[in-house]
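Hi, can you check this record?
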Amino acid sequence: MKRSHWLTGLVILLSFFLMMTLLNNVIEMGERLSSVHPYLSGVFYVLIGVFALWIGTVPIWWIIKSPVYDYSSLLRGENAEPDNSELEKFKRALSRDEEDIKRLEGKKEDELKEALVRLIAEKERQADETIVQSSLLTFLTTAISPNGLIDVAAVIYYNVKMVGSMVKLFGIRPSVMNIAKIFRNVFLTAFVVNQLEELEINEYLEEMLESFGDVAAGKILSKTMDSLIQGTLSAFVTLKIGYAAKTALLDPNKTKAKGFRRYVRRRSRQTLVKEVLPRSVSAVPRGFGKAIEMMLRRMTKGSKQGA
């Protein structure tokens, strides 16, 4: 209990610092735009207001529009087998378009259960692709963007949108407690990314790599490492948030199981190395892509040695 109170206090404190930092960044950006034209700053403040309003209304919209169901009894046969009334509830939740409705139409009991399991498995694959795409977009935006405010907005937007897409896909929402945890992790990530923007680590990195005799790597990575670290961290945490949110939707009890966090970290790390970073190479400038490839080779080599 004490640990929980300590973590809650830390989150509140970090959230306060994030809000103050964001407010300062918004005011600075507004003043810069005002020096160009007063209308620009006005439009900017309106957009910021709309964005803040969207963040505040998204969880409320989830709570109003989507129910809380536990698919674990259907997927893994935990507790009691779902009865006909539960199967019908699952059917209504998962029937998001005409194709889903046609696939489930007329099916009863065991046949309906098997069809629902297959449909959820298909939607899980779609959710995994959504998670990868959101991580990739977060990486590219935070790695290339020169502005900390844009980095924070990108982290919040892509993560909230990712979870919202899964809520719509599965037709259910997380519990209020899990929604609070998701937003806590999103804002903590935004805070860390914003703080990294303030650090100047290029010189330290170059000196460190050169001390190991890796002069070429030091020259290449030192020019892009600030952005690369922000992008990689943002992408990795987006993967963690995505996989944890998917589990909270489909099997909430699994999030409390021992080893769950370790599983999420391991899967996120594997997806980052095997999918997100390789896809990002073709979407960034050539020099930046070389730095990613170099980091990817080292990460892949390290994971093989660890195995």
About this structure: Residues 18-65 form one domain.
